[in-house]
Design a protein that fits this description.
Helix content is about 0%, strand content about 40%. It contains no helices and six strands. The N and C termini lie far apart (about 25 Å).
């Protein structure tokens, strides 16, 4: 798994198992090795999402599109 840090922005790959969470979230807190990630949705709601859902890119190493989970799209600047 890649490095998850506070203030990173993630967007859903295509829905799937993440469809009941916000489409775009900002990481609030993550303890290395923890099973969950605390995030806040753009609408302001706070959620806990499984850490296994978080990926660095929207594609796998083999070049296939991820169907479930989130991929990183940036960081909050301030």
């Amino acid at each position: 798994m890649h490095r998850i840090e506070a203030r990173q922005i993630y967007t859903t790959c295509r829905g799937g198992a993440t469809s009941h969470y916000p489409e775009t979230v900002v990481v609030q807190a993550y303890e290395p090795g923890a099973r969950t990630v605390e995030v806040i949705g753009l609408s302001g709601g706070s959620f806990t999402i499984p850490a296994s859902y978080f990926h660095a890119t929207a594609t796998t190493k083999a070049g296939r599109r991820r169907i479930t989970g989130y991929y990183m799209t940036g960081t909050v600047d301030h």
